[in-house]
Amino acid sequence: MSMPGDVRVAAPFLDAEAVAAVLAERQRALAPAEAADRRARMRVLTWTLGEEAYATPLADLTEVAAVPRVTAVPGSPAALVGLISWRGAVVNLFDPAAALQLPAPAEPGRAMLVLRHAAPRIALQVSAVTAAASVVDPGATGVGSLTHFVEADGGQRLAIVDTALLIQRLLARPLQEG
Q: What is the tens place of the pLDDT at every residue in 151-168?
């Protein structure tokens, strides 16, 4: 008895295993691209620091905006650009190049990524925000590493920044809370 949707294959020259392999290959070829990759995915925001491209999980961000007026803090860590007033709170604005051990960009960043971090509040000054992308969730593959590479849709390789580890490195000294 056959069920609706069953496929009967008459191929006396193929055994059952060969028929199953042919049908599986045909299914892969005809399946939509998103159905072919069933690995867990996550959405990221891509941004640049000078000429280098990075990405941050959207779940780690509160907001993206232009950098407002910055107040310098004498004697602050090199990574701290200064303090900003954002939505009624004091936010520490950092240059992530210091934590990533990169030379500081020639021009100050014009965009900021406000991180989902309660206290102290933190934003990253970046050169530009470029796009949102979907990537294969790296899971625990980059544990202990500040950045790790993943493949985005379309084959683009992105360096994902581990936000928790970045915050840990940036907060080596106590900062202003707001």
A: 777 777 788 888 888 888
